[in-house]
Amino acid sequence: MANPWLALDAGADPVERIRQVGRAHERFLAGETASGPSIRSVVADSWKRSAVALSGPDATAPIDLSDTDLESYRAAHPLASVLPIFRDLLGGLAEDGEHLMAVCDAYGRLLWVEGTAKVLRAGERMNFVPGALWDEAHAGTNAPGTALAIDHPLQIFATEHFSRPVQRWTCAAAPIHDPATGRLLGAIDVTGGDHLANPHSLALVRATALAAEAYLRGHLGPAATAGSVTTLGRNEAVLTVEGRRWRLGRRHSELLVLLLAHPEGSTGDELGVGLYGDDASPVTVRAELSRLRRTLGPELIEARPYRLRAEVEPDFRTVVRLLEHGRVAAALEAYGGPLLPFSDAPGVVKLRRLVDDRLRAALLAARDRDLLQTWLHSPWGTDDLQVWEAYAQLLPSDAPSRPLARARVAELRREYGLLATSVQRPRN
Length: 428
Hints:
By secondary structure, this protein is α+β, with helices and mostly antiparallel strands. The protein has 17 helices and eleven strands. Keywords: DNA-binding.
């Protein structure tokens, strides 16, 4: 095929192609490999992802948002400002009685679906409605979902759809990016009959996506500029962005750390587990997140999923990055102490141990007396038996500090009730 993103070659018989791809789809569902001249590689790869994610080929896209939640979410979405452009360029298709125009966010969640009443009702029968999730993981192979998955414009033709209820449709979609950051914002899609499988529909949605990005380049406010977050050795995180400074309470500090640990975004449930473990209450988590968003402002925290929009550098990430580059001394200097040391939130405890363990392992591997001594003279390292043992072993036999180091090792072994010469330090 000359263009792998187009569904049909020039002169191809659409009816015959529907039959060929349909047979290949059934063979794939029966366990055979998706291959052959009738199956585009982009479709075969998408079928594989869909088969892993979905319960079967008759799955229906679930509704994720509705009513006021949907209204407030899409009103705040960056693509809301581009809706007039979509309507201007694709409105003719949406009004001709044969097509749907749809806009989704970066997670495949449909924000707007427009067309005549008749075609909208047809779309409703497969849950192609605002608030439904049409990413591949929830709806299988489809143009907007697959365009997001591969970050490229493409067509999906009839039986190329993984889900059988969608195979009467053909669609063309193109992803849209934030021109300032390159971050994926969503996709624009046109859905209709088999006649959409032509070069013009793909060129049209691609041109519409480019027009949207051009508009956003001049009208969308840039992402918040770089800032910093201090969390090491203190129980209240300090966030600084664009000259503004926030000192957060304990729970909001924990939430901020969890958001920073997952810059790609987290659901409310994931944040709840990180805060409270299995005892998480969705109501309590939503309330805390709402209060944090009011404190910091919606320009800093996005929802669904929750993540920071600002480009900030937390101090714990700085330590890890320095270690990854082999700069152990610089990492030790940047380390201000355990991450939110009094926090017992499971996600924070896990991250705290990860940072501490990586730093200690690097110190022990470096076998540098000065670095080990710096750690041992800190409040968090003074009772670290394993580092004391390593330090004592590195001291020359005639060093004045050797007897003191050995005495400290013996003292800690008695305190911990240990006889072994090398043990992990106790956990807080």
